[in-house]
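Design a sequence for this backbone.
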């Protein structure tokens, strides 16, 4: 059994090679978990990658707000289900306005976080230089 060739999936390796494999993998994970590339890759992202979520939230909010405006204006016309339009119109107006404001507030928060990351890049590079020796 000891002289048999190892299987392709590597399940019949010696205990020494298993230890080497697991320790090598663990050290690689520890080193790469907080490497500098994590911090530098954030600054290379395009503006769309950074701001796409708030832009989508603002767009959906604006569309729901406009839909609420149309439904509310329909309640002033002489249409059958006037009470339904009077209830649903303000609900869509408020929901759309809430999403629009959330998106508008989200953008300055992202800008502030970007500035903090730029400031901390220098400190992270110093920290990694001294602690990874």
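Sequence:
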């Amino acid at each position: 059994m000891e002289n048999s060739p190892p299987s392709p999936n590597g399940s019949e390796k010696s205990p020494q090679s298993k230890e080497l494999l697991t320790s090598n993998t663990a050290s690689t994970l520890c080193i790469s978990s907080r490497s500098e590339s994590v911090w530098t890759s954030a600054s290379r992202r395009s503006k769309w990658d950074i701001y796409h979520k708030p832009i989508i939230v603002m767009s959906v909010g604006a569309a729901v707000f406009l839909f609420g405006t149309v439904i509310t204006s329909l309640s002033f016309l002489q249409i059958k289900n006037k009470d339904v339009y009077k209830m649903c119109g303000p609900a869509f107006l408020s929901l759309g306005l809430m999403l629009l404001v959330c998106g508008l507030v989200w953008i300055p928060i992202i800008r502030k976080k970007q500035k903090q990351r730029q400031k901390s890049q220098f400190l992270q590079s110093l920290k990694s230089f001294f602690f990874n020796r």
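Helices lie at 15-33, 36-43, 47-74, 82-131.
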